[in-house]
Amino acid sequence: MGLDGGTTATRSDILRGASWALNTAEASRSTRGGCIGSNFVHKGETVERAVARTSAWSSCALTGAELSAARGVCACRLGRLYDKQTIVEFILGKLGKFTTKESTFMVANVLGDEEKSKATRHLRSAKDFFDVHPTQSKDGDGFECPIRGVKATSGVDFVAMRPCGCVLSAAAVKAVAGGRDTATAKTCPACDAPSSSEHPLPINSEDPDVLRALRAACEQIHEVEALAEQEARKKRHKKHRRDRATDEPQPKRLSTTAAQSSSSRE
Q1: Distance, CA of 55 to CA of 209 (rounded, Å)
Q2: 75 forms bridges with which residues in the sheet?
Q3: pLDDT of residue 185
Q4: Contacts for 178 with CB less than 8 Å, ≥ 6 apart
Q5: pLDDT reported for residue 16
Q6: Is the full-model pTM beyond 0.85?
Q7: Cis peptide before 189, with omega less than 30 degrees from 0?
Q8: Counts of helices then strands in the chain (DSSP H, E)
C-alpha cells in the first residue's frame, strides 16, 4: 500500500527513500558523492525497523497478503494483525477441517516451517483472536488514528479497544481517560461503546516489555483453558460411563417370595 496508491511498499522502496535522505543531507555538491556534512543528524531509526513496521501494518502476519479493512482484519492476543478469512481457515486447518485447496497448502506451508510454526503456536482456537476495525487513512496509504489522524506506521503506540475493536493511537485513548493509562478509559473515543474489563490491546507494539507481558498473559489464558478443558473431559467421561451402565441390560433378580418358594420345592 502506498507509493502509487495500489502497491505495497517493499524493502527496496524504503532503502531508496533512506538513501535519498542521506544524499540530500550531504554537504558536498559533488555528483560523485563525498563526505557527509557535520550538520547531518541521523533519524535514530534503522531501515530494518521501518520495513518491519510497514510490513506489520500492511500485511497479514500469517501469509504476508495485503490487509484490507473491507475484507476484515483480526488481531491475536499478541497484537499482530491478520486477514480475517485467512486466520479462520488456518484455525480450521489446524483442527483438520480444510475449506479449500489453497487453505490446505497454506496450513501445510506454515506448520511445515519451523520458524512460522513457532510464531503461530499461540493460535489455537477462535478464542485467540478478535475482529478489529482499523481506519483507512484519508490518502489511502495505510491506516491511521480516526481521532488524531496520525499514521499507524509513524512509530507511535496504537491500541485496539475491546470489545468494539476500534484501532486508535494510545494518546487518543489516554486523552479520553484524562491523561491516565489507557486501561482506565471507560468508553471508546471513536464509537463511544463501553469498554470491557479487558485492557485495550497494544497493536504491533515494538516495546519488548509489552510483548513479554502480552505473551505471558496469553500463556496464562491457555493454561486456564487447558485446565477447564481437562475438567470438562473428566465430566464427559463420567457421564459416558453412567450412561453405559444405565443402557446395559441388568441381570434379572428373583424376588424374596420367589426365592423362598424355589427353595421349598427343593
Answers
A1: 21
A2: 81, 130
A3: 80
A4: 184
A5: 52
A6: no
A7: no
A8: 8, 8
DSSP one-letter code for 152: G
Q: pLDDT per residue over 145-193, tens digit each? A: 999 999 999 889 999 999 999 999 999 998 887 766 777 788 888 998 8
Cβ 72 vs Cβ 84: under 8 Å: yes
Distance CA(92)–CA(53), nearest Å, equals 29
Rounded-to-integer distance, Cα 84 and Cα 68, Å: 9
Check residue 123 and report its DSSP letter: -
- CB contact at 8 A, 20 and 13: no
For the range 225-229, what are the long-range contacts, defined as Cβ-Cβ under 8 Å and sequence gap of 24 or more? 225/127
The total of other beta-carbon atoms located within 10 Å of residue 44's CB is 6
Give 125's Cβ-side CA count (13 Å radius): 7
Type of residue at 135: T
